[in-house]
Amino acid sequence: MKLYNANFSPNALRVRAVALELGIDLEIIEVDVFKGGTRTDEFLALNPNAKIPVLQDEDFVIWESRAINTYLASKKPEHGLYPDDPKARAMVDQWSNWQTIHLGPAMQKLSFERFLKGKFGMGDPDQSVIDAEIKNVDQFLAVLETGLEGKDWIAGSLSVADFALATTFMYREQSDISLDALPNVKNWIERLEARKSWQDALAPLMAMFGG
Ligand SMILES: N[C@@H](CCC(=O)N[C@@H](CS)C(=O)NCC(=O)O)C(=O)O
Predict the structure, then answer these.
(1) Are 61 and 100 contained in the same domain?
(2) CA-based nearest residue to 5, from 159, 205, 166
(3) Using a 6 Å cutoff on CB, does residue 168 contact ligand 1?
(4) Most buried residue, 60, 76, 105, 112, by CB count within 10 Å?
């Protein structure tokens, strides 16, 4: 299977991590997003959205990182990352969708204003955006804190939802997002970040960002 990848991308990171967790060997095809690599006719035929990651499994092509991960996990059901049981699966989908629509965008906007803008010379932080997103982030993180009560993993056992959520926390320190008042979230993300799959998937990004 081929993964069209960019090492800087949190969306690609969650796919590389899940593949490593499942023991699936991916042929990594690095796409230079900043030099028009996603705008070629060849790439647009794979993903008309002009975005990585894209997975190609022989003649089957799929984009959207969370959908790629449920596909990979379904090929290796013995790992239980996308359970068959309807209720267990619904919980995985619930938290994955919630990350896509609520927590992810709020954390991303805050990280952009507080860290990535400066890092890439994209202007000064916008305090009004920061003030609005802090409120959203606080509200969503409180939901996650409650959701993790008494659990090691968000859907009970380790699942693709944990990997969907985890990329959201990548820049928490640089973005001044403290988890000190959220012990369930702090313990959960540290548990996930300690996994070899995560560390190996993260290594190329750490090399780019210098730790
Ligand atoms: N919802 C998509 C997001 C994909 C996405 O935004 N990819 C970015 C990299 S993180 C990209 O390819 N950007 C290139 C561009 O927009 O030109 C997913 O989860 O796969």
Answers:
(1) no
(2) 205
(3) no
(4) 112
